[in-house]
Backbone:
């Protein structure tokens, strides 16, 4: 009430508004490519898929409204691959997010030591992350190839008589995918962001800590880590989303197999939508995924208040 | 693996730091160098192996036990990739180039235009719209795959009587609408750093906002535009899921789909083609690495900017 009353006098200044109207319109016009794109390629499609999530639809015939059927089918066992693919995707994220964050942080710390040849090392670490996911999968399939691949060659040289078939073995397919994905992720953008974060920590703080008698470990714990928490937080948010979206590497390297061992959620979504053409049910799957991703991101934002340290006025 | 685990002992604060290089410091450096060499080997050995494989002969690629290096490097394998039976690899390359450059051009122009609208004009709803823009950064694209497919199938069918599936329109057209929130964000941040005095001086000289955009903003933002160009190049070049959904005819495939198509071709056990598959993969990786090496500066800047504020 109070707020409304206090803002209304400001709103009632017709002279000012009229003067700015032409320029307002200009601003809208300039920004319009993105705004139009947002409506056309994001907002509109999201609403469309929300509607489709409550229908049965296979392109050939018009969508039929089925209420909550699709969600019941997903949650109550009508789709035997729903929970397994969800579980697999979460397992993947639970393993991959901490591993890739720690790997990237350690690599960044190493590059931040002022060693000779750091620029070359940075490029060497970074190049795997430039490898297109398809090419990465094709290259690693050959490395994992049971008979002629480099990995089993190495293992045989080391005396392992019958090394596993890696991607072709349901027990090893998941860890194999993890290793190849880590190879392509650890030295990439996440590492560069960590490196920038590390370089943004004021040198004086280290000097001050040293004068206070803090050893290397203490300085890492009390200076580096707290000042790096915003960077860790950013990489965490991006990392969780990326892990949940895993698709291309698995799709090309294993096709979701063997025996559904690497059947991730987005693979399931793709299969349902574009192989089986169950577009209504697949839209429900897409919206479930969307809600999970947004929910996790919001939860991360909320939890961040407990552990992310913002220096002075540098709030988000 | 590295830094923190390797520390021998916390150095004595005063004396240990004074001398040029005390023993524990030297040990620490040895460990650091050893660690970084180990990491470098781990990161590069898969490439070394695939390059070695790509240079092997047909006999070598399936010899058992395998050899690590080819006896004589077969450089002609890289030529043979372009004349494979049943796999139009040269065509894939051209298709990729076509899709990548048309989308890249669309992304640069429309992202710059949109960013200018966000950076230099104060219009009603601008700040709310900017929040929307930022929130789309965490939006998983998978949610809109199905309706976007329908937009390119059903809508054109109703309007012009034919589907746009199996054409390049669905891959290129979306780039011409701002080219993604991240690019608009990046350019907007950059435009904001250009002093407004420049605009005001230009306005006094009678410049329109279009002229300010062309003659002040764009020339001063070359590094940011290069960053956007690099990101958009890599994004399109590496994209897999969109071509997978939209394209059916193998002649129209870009490299990402083409490589998988090649990999899935039934192979004759007598005539293995893995060495050519490796060569093909590396031919797809090469432009990405080249672009990175040439534009490293911009690239790193762009990534770092993405981390400054989400």
Residues:
């Amino acid at each position: 009430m109070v707020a409304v009353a206090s803002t209304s006098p400001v709103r009632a200044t017709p002279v000012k508004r009229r003067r700015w109207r032409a320029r307002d319109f200009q601003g809208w016009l300039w920004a319009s490519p993105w705004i139009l794109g947002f409506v056309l390629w994001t907002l509109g499609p999201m609403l469309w898929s929300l509607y489709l999530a409550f229908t049965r639809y296979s392109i050939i015939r018009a969508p039929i409204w089925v209420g909550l059927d699709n969600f019941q089918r997903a949650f109550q066992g009508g789709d035997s691959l729903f929970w397994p693919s969800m579980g697999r995707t979460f397992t993947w994220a639970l393993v991959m997010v901490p591993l890739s964050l720690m790997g990237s942080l350690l690599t960044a710390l190493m590059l931040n030591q002022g060693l000779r040849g750091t620029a070359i090392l940075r490029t060497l670490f970074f190049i795997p992350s430039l490898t297109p996911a398809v090419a990465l999968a094709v290259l690693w399939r050959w490395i994992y190839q049971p008979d002629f691949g480099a990995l089993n060659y190495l293992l045989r040289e080391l005396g392992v008589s019958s090394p596993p078939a890696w991607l072709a073995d349901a027990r090893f397919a998941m860890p194999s995918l993890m290793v190849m994905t880590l190879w392509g992720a650890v030295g990439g953008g996440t590492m560069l962001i960590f490196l920038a974060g590390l370089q943004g920590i004021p040198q004086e703080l280290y000097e001050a800590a040293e004068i206070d008698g803090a050893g290397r470990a203490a300085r890492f714990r009390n200076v580096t880590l707290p000042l790096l928490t915003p960077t860790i937080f950013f990489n965490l948010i991006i990392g969780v989303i990326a892990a949940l979206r895993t698709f291309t590497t698995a799709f090309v390297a294993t096709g979701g197999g063997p025996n559904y061992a690497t059947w991730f959620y987005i693979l399931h979504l793709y299969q349902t939508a574009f192989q089986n053409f169950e577009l209504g049910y697949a839209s429900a799957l897409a919206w479930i995924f969307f809600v999970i991703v947004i929910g996790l991101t919001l939860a991360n934002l909320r939890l961040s208040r407990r552990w992310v340290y913002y220096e002075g006025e540098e709030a988000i | 693996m590295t830094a923190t685990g390797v520390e021998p002992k916390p150095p004595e604060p005063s004396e240990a730091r004074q001398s040029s290089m005390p023993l524990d410091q030297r040990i620490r450096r040895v460990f650091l160098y050893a660690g970084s060499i180990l990491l470098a080997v781990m990161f590069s050995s898969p490439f070394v192996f695939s390059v070695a494989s790509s240079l092997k002969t047909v006999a070598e690629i399936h010899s058992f036990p395998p050899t690590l290096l080819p006896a004589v490097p077969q450089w002609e394998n890289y030529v043979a990739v372009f004349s494979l039976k049943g796999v139009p690899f040269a065509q894939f390359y051209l298709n990729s180039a076509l899709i990548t450059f048309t989308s890249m051009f669309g992304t640069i122009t429309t992202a710059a235009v949109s960013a200018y609208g966000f950076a230099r004009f104060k219009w009603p709803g601008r700040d709310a719209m900017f929040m929307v823009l930022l929130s789309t950064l965490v939006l998983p694209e998978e949610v809109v795959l199905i309706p976007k497919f329908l937009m390119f199938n059903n809508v054109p069918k109703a309007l012009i009587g034919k589907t746009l599936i199996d054409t390049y329109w669905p891959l290129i057209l979306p780039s011409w609408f701002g080219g993604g929130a991240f690019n608009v964000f990046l350019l907007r941040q950059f435009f904001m750093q250009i002093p407004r005095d420049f605009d005001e001086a230009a306005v006094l000289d009678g410049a329109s906002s279009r002229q300010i955009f062309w003659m002040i903003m764009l020339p001063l933002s070359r590094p940011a535009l290069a960053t956007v160009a690099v990101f958009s190049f890599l994004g399109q070049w590496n994209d897999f899921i969109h071509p997978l959904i939209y394209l059916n005819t193998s002649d129209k495939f870009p490299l990402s789909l083409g490589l998988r198509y090649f990999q899935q071709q039934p192979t004759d056990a007598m005539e293995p083609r893995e060495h050519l598959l490796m060569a093909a993969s590396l031919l797809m990786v090469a432009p990405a690495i080249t672009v990175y090496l040439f534009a490293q500066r911009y690239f790193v800047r762009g990534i770092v900017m993405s981390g400054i504020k989400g």
Remarks:
- Chain B touches chain A through 106 residues (CB under 8 Å).
- Confidence is low (pLDDT under 50) at residues 1-18 of chain B.
